[in-house]
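Lay summary. Proteins are chains of building blocks that fold into shapes, and those shapes determine what they do. In this project we predict the shape from the chain. Here is one chain we studied, written as its sequence of building blocks.
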Amino acid sequence: METTTAIEWILACHTNDVPENGGACVKLGEEQIAIYNFTRRGEWYATQNLCPHKQQMVLSRGMIGSTGAHCEPKVACPFHKNTFSLISGQCLTNEEYSIKTYAVKIADGKIFIGI
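And here is the predicted shape, written in a compact code that computers can read:
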């Protein structure tokens, strides 16, 4: 039996608050969320901001890019270069780590994060 959970969409910020091909951090409740404007792909992503390797709130400042034959979108921690899939959250360089990912919706120049 499959269970379905309703997504609550929370206004995070405006699209012009996030640099092209870069990231920004917002605080929603007690959680820091990194939002990425992957302009080269025409896509938006959101993950936890906490890098699980050294427990630093830095992922929003990481470099984004693509990897592999399927051009999977990724972010690299700016300090230790562990890379994480922006789709699944799996660490692509060290399988013992992973991060949370969130759904993103853009409407009328506003960014909503699905919790």
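What the prediction tells us: DSSP finds no helices and eleven strands in the chain.
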